[in-house]
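About this split. The held-out portion is used to measure sequence recovery: a designer receives only the structure tokens and must propose an amino acid at every position. Recovery is the fraction of positions where the proposal matches the reference. Here is one held-out target exactly as it appears in the evaluation file.
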């Protein structure tokens, strides 16, 4: 207890978050602390690691070394990037190479994600409990197995999002309020990475008011200034079109209602 206090770790909070740590021997804890800090982690970084994954303190050096070896040799993590990888996902240090890390690596590679070293945070995820259910969800809402996998290859971070708190509400809004086609999501799965309340809804509603429909990347990826500029460009195009005969433009129908409409349409407007 005194040793943990000396390195700035609250023992009472620690046992509250991870009771099994009390069974770890003091010598093992000291060895683990010394080993991890010898990798270049500052005291602040180490406390953060323990705060995010208290299991690290109950891990022996003999358990941690195989993890580091796996990350470098099998996951192809550059040795200079190892510290950043651990800081980003401390739980990796407490994972079993045989039961967790290696099976997940093989699964990710099997679906076509070759550069797993760019997505090492996924290695601590369970294939059966987290990865497969998200693939099955995309299939459930209408994507073919092939298309679902292509979305995860294009944007592997999809595996990190909650089905209930992210996928479901955002997909519902995408279909019911935005009236978009699944093809849009297939081409831009990053849609799920944007805040529904702070980005998706506000921008969609502005587009409805202005009578325009942008591709998802323009709608969501652009910063506020760029988005406003695109709206202004559409306004100029609209005004210019007053003197032209026929021009295809993406517009919402005149009867479009923000709260009740379901589909946008492509109209050939005759000026």
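Reference sequence for scoring:
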């Amino acid at each position: 207890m005194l040793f943990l206090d000396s390195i700035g770790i609250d023992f009472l909070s620690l046992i509250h978050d991870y009771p099994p740590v009390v069974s770890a021997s003091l010598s093992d804890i000291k060895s683990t602390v010394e080993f991890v800090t010898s990798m270049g982690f500052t005291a602040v970084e180490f406390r953060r690691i323990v705060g995010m994954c208290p299991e690290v303190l109950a891990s022996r050096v003999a358990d941690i070394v195989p993890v580091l070896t796996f990350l470098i040799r099998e996951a192809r993590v550059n040795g200079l990037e190892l510290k950043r990888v651990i800081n980003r996902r401390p739980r990796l240090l407490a994972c079993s190479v045989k039961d967790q890390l290696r099976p997940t690596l093989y699964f990710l590679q099997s679906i076509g994600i070759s550069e797993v070293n760019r997505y090492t945070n996924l290695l601590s995820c369970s294939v059966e409990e987290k990865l497969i259910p998200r693939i099955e969800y995309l299939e459930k809402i209408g994507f073919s197995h092939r298309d679902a996998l292509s979305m995860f290859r294009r944007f592997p971070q999809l595996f990190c999002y909650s089905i209930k708190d992210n996928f479901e509400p955002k997909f519902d809004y995408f279909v019911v309020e935005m009236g978009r086609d699944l093809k849009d999501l297939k081409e831009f799965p990053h849609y799920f990475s944007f805040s529904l309340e702070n980005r998706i809804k506000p921008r969609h509603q502005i587009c409805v008011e202005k009578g325009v429909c942008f591709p998802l990347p323009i709608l969501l990826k652009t910063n506020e200034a760029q988005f406003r500029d695109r709206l202004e460009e559409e306004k100029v195009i609209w005004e210019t079109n007053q003197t032209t005969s026929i021009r295809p433009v993406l517009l919402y129908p005149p009867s479009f209602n923000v709260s009740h409409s379901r589909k946008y349409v492509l109209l050939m407007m005759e000026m």
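Annotator remark: Confidence is low (pLDDT under 50) at residues 251-271.
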